[in-house]
Each structure stands twice: as structure tokens, then as C-alpha cells.
Design goal:
Blueprint lengths: L1 H12 L5 E2 L8 E2 L27 H22 L5 H6 L5 H12 L6 H7 L5 H14 L5 H7 L5 H14 L5 H4 L8 H13 L9 H14 L5 H13 L6 H7 L5 H16 L11 H14 L5 H14 L5 H10 L2 H18 L1
Antiparallel strand pairs: 1-2
Helix pairs in contact: 1-2, 4-6, 5-6, 6-8, 7-8, 8-10, 10-11, 10-12, 11-12, 12-14, 13-14, 14-15, 14-16, 15-16, 16-18, 17-18
């Protein structure tokens, strides 16, 4: 810092040869020894030099001050940034609140702290590895991919689940063959994050081998029938990345799932699949499949859950299904205020479309 101040002092002082930047006693002004000379006086009317030829050194001096000010602020700010080491040490704390607070501080360092986090990913403390993997997933720096792949084999299933989650956040296609080794894990959290990651890490046939892509999608389809709700939801989300390829039958079955959250996602997906509005879609489904989807959505109009009923109505609107008019009319007559509003709007649109 002393060197920086010295250079700045010379830079500023170079524009004002008759005075020191600190002056006498640290103030602006001429040096005590400096004397006013004829060369420093402004010319009078009797001078041979015109007033227009006189130039003061002070405008250039002020210009340099304005230029150096922001630079000096940036340098002092950078140099004063605290080291992340105290926060990394706090990740060992047995107090979860203290660890979370330290993690929040480390997150502000962004990709600057990634190399240190990668080092700590092999810590002997499970709680440190947990916080580190979570931070790496939130920062989303590709340098962390190899570390996350290794962490899939962590003795703690929670750490391994965070590693799978982080790989999904990074959408790392190179992780697909590694994730495939863990899709049958006993841990629900790990299994769910692996299935989710198999979907998110797939970025098209050019990024993953055909064999790995087929194996990943087969694992996702099997997860539709998992005993755990969290895994079934992950399967629905992951299959979206593949365009719900050959998944309509599974979506229809999940639209009658025992868990409302699963039903909601499935009903939403059915409307998108019917008209081909999905990622990597080959277009709308055939007539028979369209009929099956509409029938499943009509059943969902009797849902006890309001949000699912509304989603079913909107899916039928998206498809443009006049064959569901009688069921929509019934919902408008007997449903809630929201049911009547939604069903009435869709019926009006269907009539306009037929007209």
C-alpha cells in the first residue's frame, strides 16, 4: 500500500511543479520555500504576452485528482478484503447457525473461493464436506465438477446427495455415467437427486453417448413407480428434459397418484405433451394418445385439490378439447368461484373456436 500511495503522490504532484501535494503541515499549497516570481504572475496589460496565452496548472491538477480518486478507492477496497480462512474454519463448528452464517459469508467470495472449497471437500468432518458441497453447488463453478463426482461416493448420503444436486445445478453432461451408478441407492434424498441430475445433465444427444442417454432415461422411467414421493417428483421433472419421450402412460398413471404434488406435476405435463410443447418434442401426440390424455384430464376435474382442478381446466384449454365441454359445464355449475370462472372462460373459448 505504501508503494501505491507513493506512485499516486508522484502522479498527482507531476502536474504542479511549484507545490507539494501535502504542502506545509500536510495541507494543499506551495512549499514554504517557494517564492512568487514574475514567471508565476498573470501578465498585465503592459506585458508582451497576451492574457489568452496564460494557462493555469490547476485544471490539469484537478482532472488528475478526479481520475485517481476512484482508482485509489478501488485499490484500498481490494487490498482490505478480508481473508476467507476464518469463515472456512467456522465450517467446523458444531453450531449449525454459525456454520450457515460462515457459509453465507463465503458465498459472497464467489468463484474466488472455489479452489479453497475444493481443498476442504476432503475434510475429515462430515459437516464441513456438507457445507462445502452445498456452497459449490450454489456457486456453480465448472471447476468443481470432478470434486462433486468424487463426492457421490461419500460415506455420508447427505453429502453425496448434495454432490448429485450440485452436478444437476451445473448441468454437467460428463457426470451422467457416474450418476447412473447411484440411481438405486437406499437413501431417498440421494436417489431423488441422482434422478433429477440425470435429467438436468442431459443436454441433447451431442453431449451424452447414446448408451448413457438410454440408460439414464430408463432409470428415470423406473423412478415413476418409486415408493417415495420425492423420487417420483424428481422423475417427472427429469423426464421433462427428455421431452417426456414415451412417458405418456406413466404421466396418466401419475395424474392419479396418491400424493397431490405428484398429481399436480403430472396434470401440467399432460397438457404440454398433448400439443408437443415440450423440450425436444417431435410434435403433438397421435389421435388415440390425445384421447387418452383428455380422458385423464377430465377425471382430474373431480380432484379435491383446487389447484389441480384449475391446472386440468387450463390443460384442456391448451389442447382445445370440445369433447370435454359437458364436464366443464358441470364444473361451472357446481364448482367453486374459481372453478366457475376458469370453466366459463374455457367454454367460451371452445365455442369461439368451433364457431
Amino acid at each position: 500500500m505504501r508503494y501505491i500511495y507513493k506512485q499516486l503522490r508522484e502522479f498527482i504532484g507531476s502536474t504542479h511543479t511549484g507545490s507539494d501535494w501535502r504542502g506545509s503541515g500536510g495541507s494543499w499549497g506551495p512549499k514554504p520555500s517557494a517564492r512568487r516570481t514574475d514567471s508565476m504572475r498573470a501578465p498585465d496589460s503592459s506585458s508582451t504576452t497576451s492574457r489568452s496565452s496564460f494557462k493555469s496548472p490547476f485544471p490539469a491538477f484537478r482532472w488528475r485528482v478526479l481520475l485517481v480518486g476512484p482508482l485509489l478507492f478501488a485499490l484500498t477496497t481490494t487490498c482490505s478484503k478480508p481473508s476467507p480462512e476464518p469463515f472456512i474454519a467456522q465450517l467446523k463448528s458444531i453450531q449449525s447457525r454459525q456454520r450457515e452464517k460462515a457459509a453465507g459469508k463465503l458465498l459472497k467470495y464467489g468463484d474466488e473461493v472455489v479452489p479453497r472449497l475444493i481443498e476442504e471437500a476432503d475434510s475429515e468432518y462430515t459437516r464441513v464436506r456438507f457445507e462445502v458441497l452445498r456452497l459449490l453447488g450454489r456457486i456453480r463453478d465448472p471447476r468443481a465438477v470432478p470434486t462433486m463426482i468424487r463426492a457421490l461416493d461419500d460415506k455420508s448420503s447427505k453429502v453425496a446427495a448434495l454432490a448429485a444436486w450440485g452436478l444437476g445445478e451445473l448441468k454437467a453432461p460428463e457426470a451422467v455415467p457416474h450418476l447412473l451408478r447411484y440411481h438405486r441407492e437406499v437413501s431417498t434424498d440421494l436417489r431423488a437427486e441422482v434422478i433429477r441430475g440425470l435429467g438436468l445433465c442431459y443436454a441433447g444427444p451431442d453431449t451424452v453417448s447414446i448408451a448413457d442417454a438410454d440408460s439414464a432415461y430408463a432409470a428415470i422411467i423406473r423412478a415413476f413407480d418409486d415408493t417415495e414421493t420425492k423420487v417420483r417428483i424428481a422423475a417427472l421433472q427429469a423426464s421433462h428434459e427428455y421431452g417426456y419421450r414415451d412417458a405418456v402412460v406413466h404421466l396418466i398413471r401419475r395424474s392419479r397418484d396418491e400424493t397431490a404434488e405428484v398429481r399436480y406435476v403430472a396434470v401440467q405435463a399432460l397438457g404440454q405433451v398433448a400439443i408437443g410443447r415440450t423440450r425436444r418434442s417431435s410434435g403433438p401426440v397421435d389421435a388415440q394418445m390425445r384421447h387418452n390424455i383428455i380422458q385423464a384430464l377430465v377425471v382430474s376435474l373431480s380432484e379435491p385439490n383446487q389447484s389441480i382442478r384449475t391446472k386440468a381446466v387450463r390443460a384442456l384449454e391448451m389442447i382445445g378439447a370440445p369433447e370435454a365441454a359437458s364436464q366443464l359445464e358441470k364444473l361451472r355449475e357446481t364448482g367453486t368461484v374459481e372453478d366457475r370462472r376458469e370453466a366459463g372462460r374455457v367454454l367460451g373459448n371452445l365455442r369461439e373456436g368451433n364457431g
